[in-house]
Specification:
Length: 162
């Protein structure tokens, strides 16, 4: 029997809900905001292309990262990226004022960044705790079957023989 691994039932949907289904950078933006690195937070929000599915948006983000030209970015960013365009419009008028540019976002979006970071930290802590518990479980693995389900603080953990 190999090393036991685990599967948290239903976590993919929870991860997408908390971190976004494509770009997955909301928690990173939250971290930058909490550290007071508003320039880096704005840069991530506007220029990060990882997970971006729209080609026009990807190119606009890359162009902004390369040029730093907010006037040009307003023309290139697709209209559906309303939040990004709000930040860009502010930075075009007030270059370098990243904190106030981010304040153009709705409070709910700013809180989303912070809450995504909180969720990310929780998930990391839970994963570490589960790993610790599984090390204990491995030492008594003879008493467990490979498909046993362990319930831990509301999560169902399925042991998988790997």
């Amino acid at each position: 029997m190999g090393r036991a691994s685990y599967l948290l039932v239903g976590t993919k949907a929870a991860e997408e809900q908390r971190f976004g289904s494509t770009r997955r950078n909301t928690h990173l933006i939250g971290l930058k905001i909490l550290r007071g690195r508003f320039d880096e937070a704005a840069h991530l929000f506007l220029c990060d292309t990882k997970g971006e599915e729209n080609q026009q948006a990807t190119q606009a983000r890359k162009d902004l990262e390369e040029t730093g030209d907010y006037k040009k970015a307003l023309k290139e960013f697709p209209k559906y990226l309303r939040l990004e365009r709000k930040v860009i419009a502010y930075l075009e008028k007030y270059p370098g004022n990243y904190a106030n540019a981010l304040r153009r976002l709705p409070r709910s979006i700013l809180l989303l960044f912070i809450h995504a970071l909180q969720s990310h930290i929780f998930n990391q802590s839970l994963s570490q705790r589960i790993e610790q518990e599984l090390r204990v479980a491995e030492s008594i693995q003879k008493k467990l079957l490979p498909t046993d389900i362990i319930s831990y603080q509301g999560y169902d953990i399925v042991l998988i023989d790997s």
